[in-house]
Amino acid sequence: MAVGMGALLCGAIAWSRLPLFGALGRAAVVLPFSLAFAAVCWVAGDASRGVHLAVKSYLSALAVLLVVSTTGLPNLLRGLGALGAPRFLLMVVKFLYRYLFVISEEAQHMAKAALSRGATAAGVMGRPARFRAAAGALAVLFARSHGRATEIHRAMLARGFQGQFPASRALDFGGADAALAIVGSLVPVAVRFAVERFR
Amino acid sequence: MPPLIEVRNLHYRYEDGTVALRGVDFRLEAGESVALLGANGSGKTTFAMHLNGLLGAEGRDHGGSVTVCGMPVERSNLAAIRRKIGMVFQDSDSQLFMPTVLEDVTFGPLNLGLSPEAATERAITALERVGMRAAASRAPYHLSAGEKRRVAIAGILAMDPEILVLDEPTTFLDPPSRRSLAELLQNLPQAKILVTHDISFARSICTRAVFFLNGAVTATGSIGDVVERLEWGFTPARNPPGR
Fold first, then answer.
1. Do B155 and A158 count as a contact with CB atoms less than 8 A apart?
2. How many domains does chain A contain in total?
3. What count of Cα atoms within 13 Å lies in the side-chain half-sphere of residue A173?
4. Which of A23, B5, B54, B128 minimizes the number of CB atoms within 10 Å of its CB?
């Protein structure tokens, strides 16, 4: 069954024109955690459960990777909203997604400014001085982020925000979506059926 | 006809004790465009933020009165006042906070209580008006400074305000973007308040200027008069001969 599901996911990854081996490697990021739990199961005398746990978590990670790589975050969040995920949580993710780049760009500007004034990772400054400089830069970045958060809040107030995020337009559910949902549900059932039949 | 905005003897002090406004009087008539000029820290932006209650609406550290379209700026009127005044901030990155352009422009109309469909329709009309319809599904982060400014203006236009307040609208813009922004603003029928250092830009949009100095209005009149009287225009010094 696991092999069938793995093959199905690999097929979907290849069909989506994603790098297959890159995706397989990235999904392995969950293995250190799941293998730890698998080891506990093995020590407890239930080795097969441990194997199931590791395989299931790896395949789940692969499926998540496939969804995240093929769906833009705005649509993904709207989909999660339609499925009933807490709106506040989704809004936090939206803001994070929007401003992560802005803050990282500010950090890069600060790093460039430091480099242009002769700072290097192994520069003439001693380690404590470098640590102090890095801590200072981090503090400035935090202060700038706080200032930006204040500005964003003002911009929201200026456009009528009263503490509740308004509901946006629902996602359209067309024929292609229905076809994908049907195929996506039937194929795993078919795989399971085939595995059970020929075992 | 009553003025769109009337400010009388406005005072404001920040929490750290800095006095930002000292007895400002101001009027904006329907259809008028006014430039707020003055040095950095002279109180222009603080003044602009009083107009839609971003500062001063709580009554603390604040004196005088601000009236917009006949309504005093106070907590109970803020929702109605923010329908009347659209504010475009200096840093567009702070104004465009949603993941896509279209979602950002619909934010204001949705807050006004419009249905998602009506808000989307308004947003698309506003984007068409500023020439950014094609960018509707793009992320604001990937736009140029001029495009971000246009989208920020669309976000305000989608709320159908009577007054536009633009804080340093030419910041980060190259000359072609400045020119196209000037053309866009010239064609918008709303009354406008421009907080700016950019005299040539202000001249292209506004008929009147108000000059701020240390939190007080020290001159008012036509832009040409104010600039000349206060020597606020920029004339580059010539290199001495022989260099």
1. no
2. 3
3. 9
4. B128
